[in-house]
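# nightly structure sweep
# worker-07 picked up a monomer target from the shared queue
# config: single-sequence mode, recycle default, output format = structure tokens
# input follows
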Amino acid sequence: MNIVYLTSEAIPFARTGGLGDVCGSLPNRVSKLGHHVSIIMPAFRCVHTSGISIIPTDISFTIEIKSATAVSCRLLKGKLPGGDVTVWFIDQPKYFDREGLYGDGSDDYPDNAERFAFFCRASIKAMERLQISPDVIHCNDWQTGLVPAILRQDATIRSQFSSTTTLMTIHNLAYQGNFSAKAYDYVGLGWEHFTLETFEFYHRLNFLKAGITCADTVTTVSPQYAQEITTQTHGCGLDGVLRAKSDHLHGIINGIDDNIWNPATDHLIPHQYDQTNWRVGKLANKQHLQLRFGLEANDELPLIGLVGRLADQKGWDLILPIIKKHLIENRPTQWIVLGSGNPQLETELRSLAAQHPSRLAVYIGFSDEHAHLIEAASDLFLMPSHYEPCGLSQLYSLRYGSVPVVNPTGGLADTVVDTREDSLERGTATGFYLDQADSASLDRAIGRALSIQYHQPENWSRIVTNGMLQNWSWNRSANNYIKCYERSLVHKLADRG
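# output follows
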């Protein structure tokens, strides 16, 4: 198959979250399974500072972005590291030569509708100019949502896309590209197409809704999340649209790069280990972390790790009261936090760390090295998210034997098996669930875990090794995506017939 990925993020060129991880890994794995793969993405400023060679081409064209306005751009070319995937960059400095991808840190850019309508149109034109006739166009998140709608509704688009199937992957339904109806001028279609069935969402323009309604297949990043987003609770206003698409909605778990996230070969941790010697390896890494961050040097204290955004969505409204409780009551636990986000949370955590330096260490910001060390050193890893489309940190934790404590939602429910008597007997237990999404349940789950760790060491060893032996590699995910592409093509051909 000839597969084109459209995305606004792909590591190492641009990343703000899981979208960048997926589009920086999945294309290479699909390519290595025998398919022709390319990526089209914006030439953001960070693309030029990524350290990867970017080559100018002589291909340029213009896009009519409003009734009488044409905006020019050119194509740049690069390679996705680790494979043979070509990356084509849409170079238009007016739109993409900025410090941030979507905003300036305090707010979204006010012209995001114009920027990404241009990107969608330019991506289609780039495929035409490059004479790519894709079997599959795989769109990712709202920034590419106009593409399936344009391909379906614009009669001027060349016939080379008539046999192309389109996929729309939702990485996080909360982000939809929801703009004033006036922004529809940038789409490049007549207003007769601005209808409830496609673009219109409560008298506004919704990029993601357009993608969902017009794509041949819709995927999201876990089976559980695929179910949740069809409910009013987690549907973010699009639950009805997604229920109508339920026959073509699938959940596929993301993967992890097991060349990077492998405790047996990880060069970012001081002591490598695998499932046969994890006790020795994790203890040595814990000792290193305690020394580096000024925590009490105590082998017996369980270390609880947290890595990620400091936001209520990640369960920090549950976590912070428990950290305070453990510190105030002098519970026998240590805590290490890596992340950034809510300024008030950052301030509170810094203050708590200053008051309890031997028990709580806080690093505001992000460090890849620290993230790997925390996974390698922690006994428990907390992810009590209120919703989690897929999640990657729990997959890293399983791989590194840092037992996850999670709220069973979205991808967390799909990848972590709660420790109960029956799951221990079956040999499937890998973590601990909250009974409900509140602080008391989080504390009980931590208590259950620590009780087994210290009073049932053989069961604890089973839980750790069960998680370390699981396969959450990108090869697994890539094979599932290929099956999805093939099904979508069959349905496309059947519809044409």
